[in-house]
Amino acid sequence: MRMNPKGFTLPELLLSTAILVFCLSSVLATFIQSSILTGLARNIAKAKTHAEYVMENIRAETFTNIPQSNAMTTWSAWSLNSDQINTLGLTALNGETVVTTVSGTNPVDVIVTVTWTDTGGRSMSHAIRTLVSG
Question: What pLDDT was estimated at residue 2?
């Protein structure tokens, strides 16, 4: 009499388990990478929003209030740290600073640079630039 086995053999179970582990680890790695990239994109968008906020306030200034210099000069009125950013109703990024520099006389070259530290401890920055004339 011959036995008719029902079920899987041990090598079949091991192979199917290995395939399942490989597929799940690939999906998990993709999910983790997507989460990291989403966080990076969110921080860049927030930094861009903060730079645009500062730039719009600078555009609202009268031209005579904008410092004018032949050399690149930091404009302290619109250079902010994390605490100052939070008091403006914005949520500061980790270690965020906003530095506004100006150069020229007419037009004035205005650069707003936002710098922060991402979750991996890397220093990140985003800058926008415009010319203002009076």
Answer: 63
